[in-house]
């Protein structure tokens, strides 16, 4: 199973998100963080991610006769441009739908937290229409990437809470016909 296929499930995406930032967690701890999903399901998906090489065992110890493993993400899993270029429109639809399902699950879990306050937490889910040339689009993506990557280096701290940022960008119309034609 390739990485795209492994990650093409909302629960597996949520496991990966829970382990980002250098976190090392047991499957039991993952079950606590993803409490809206049945424990057996979380265990099964952790196994699939480990078998595919997305997760690695960071250590293990015995708990009441059973072995409890601590997992972490392997080096950053990157879906290369060649893999994306080889995807069919249906592959893109499935991948996008999976990402949206994971996002909806994460948002629903957030709303279920004691003290969840979308106004105070400055929750945002806005859409903006931008008119961009290919060069302007590339420049904007590079600027956003720099801003986001700088903050991805932040580790856990007393005054920090984990946030999920999911930028989505796609054209909403086909290019205008060539004016010179």
Description:
The chain is mainly alpha-helical and 181 residues long. It has a domain at 3-123: Winged helix-like DNA-binding domain superfamily/Winged helix DNA-binding domain (Arc Repressor Mutant, subunit A). It has helices at 3-7, 10-19, 27-33, 39-51, 81-85, 89-111, 134-152, and strands at residues 25-26, 55-63, 66-73. The chain has a 3-stranded antiparallel sheet with strand order 1-3-2. A hairpin with a 2-residue loop joins strand 2 (55-63) and strand 3. Helix 2 crosses helix 6 and helix 3 packs across helix 4.
How does the SSE layout of this entry go?
Blueprint: H1 3-7, H2 10-19, E1 25-26, H3 27-33, H4 39-51, E2 55-63, E3 66-73, H5 81-85, H6 89-111, H7 134-152
Helix pairs in contact: 2-6, 3-4
Radius of gyration: 19 Å
Task: Report the sheet-strand fraction.
Answer: 5-15%
Q: CATH class of the domain at 3-123, please?
A: Mainly Alpha
Mean pLDDT: 87
Overview in brief:
The protein contains seven helices and three strands, in the order H-H-E-H-H-E-E-H-H-H. With 181 residues, it is mainly α.
